[in-house]
Amino acid sequence: MTEPSNNVDVKRRNRANTLRCILNCESISQPELARRLALSWPTVLQNVKELAAMGLVCEVGTYESTGGRKARAYAPVRSARLAVGLDVTLNHVGIVLVDLSGKVLDYSRKKYPFSMDDGYFRQLKSIVDEFAGGKTNLLGVGISLPGIINETGSILLFSHALGLRDIPTSTFSRYIEYPCAFTNDANAAAMAEVWGKDENENLVYLSLSNSVGGAIVKNGEIYLGDNLRAGEFGHNTLVPGGRQCYCGKDGCLDAYCSAKVLADRADGTIIGFFNWLRSGDAQAAEVWREYLQYLAVEINNLRMSFDCDVIVGGYVGGFLEEFGAPLREMLRQRNTFQPDDSYFRSSRYHLEASAVGAALLHVRRFIREI
User: Fold this and answer.
1) N or C: which end of the chain has fewer CB within 10 A?
2) CA distances from 169 to 179, 180, 226 (A)
3) pLDDT score, position 215
4) pLDDT (tens digit, 9 = 90+) per residue, 57-88?
5) In contact, 142 and 358? CB cutoff 8 Å
6) What is the architecture, at CATH level 2, of domain 5-76?
7) What is the CATH code for 81-191+353-369?
8) In what order do the strands lie in the sheet with 164-168?
9) Which residues in 54-152 belong to E strands, given as ranges?
10) CATH number assigned to the domain covering 198-346
11) DSSP notation for 126-145
């Protein structure tokens, strides 16, 4: 007799939640699992048995007895499934290999200018094949693109960075032999930030790379907006009548806070700018101070608008742990309600956050469907 679909869904959801909980631990007992998940002991026991049969969980011993039978210890087999993430930009391709916990096992970044030539897409296949290494436990390849993608992930509606409009995303995967899924680059990076955390988390992600983008996460899900353009923070007007943006308008945030603003003041690279800043040069310090003043205004605006944590990532975000102290002081001074900067975080991924988030498309789907 077939079980009612809602009962099957509940069992699948409980099994998925059990795996998520175990993935966040080095080891855990069944009683502790039952407590954290608010599930009965028999339900947890059945879930653990099924996950062990799938090779996703293993028994690793027992805990010290507190008076009764020793509780068995279970640990995740994080490498049981892997996924590849590919981040396509105008001038580079980033690629990562992640396990079920989202841990980056390997990564690479190759200078490879985008082109609509067939040879470019054949090269994407070669990059994936070289990186995947014929692994049989690969869930698939997630691909992040710098542009607006439709809700099904099948059409790249618009990409100013790549100069494309209304292109099937399958164009990028035409030679890749693994299952592929597509997402916007900033949305991917935001999902990488919330992976393994509270599923109901709200946050705003601001990406400061060669262009400025962002994403809004509500209850652990990306908010896309009515026209799939939510999070286009780079085109918020920061300075009316100010510098010209690549979009043709004046005063956009992108014209003041993209990574190129800093790179163009050095040797054309963001690393070159921060090496200049490390040298103690007064001019570099002044360029950085001015940049942070504009950035502080935008971060405060986001905080006032969304009333949640703001994470800053992208090329510049990777340097904020080292150079972000002045920014925190500016945020405290600008905060309307209290001198607080605790809502601001720099990205936990200094490299290839978008590629990680793209890879996690497959991991997330796998865990939801087990």
Assistant:
1) N
2) 13, 10, 21
3) 96
4) 999 887 765 555 677 889 999 999 999 999 99
5) yes
6) Orthogonal Bundle (1.10)
7) 3.30.420.40
8) 148-149, 155-159, 164-168
9) 57-62, 72-76, 82-88, 92-98, 104-111, 138-145, 148-149
10) 3.30.420.40
11) HHHHHHHTT-TTEEEEEEEE
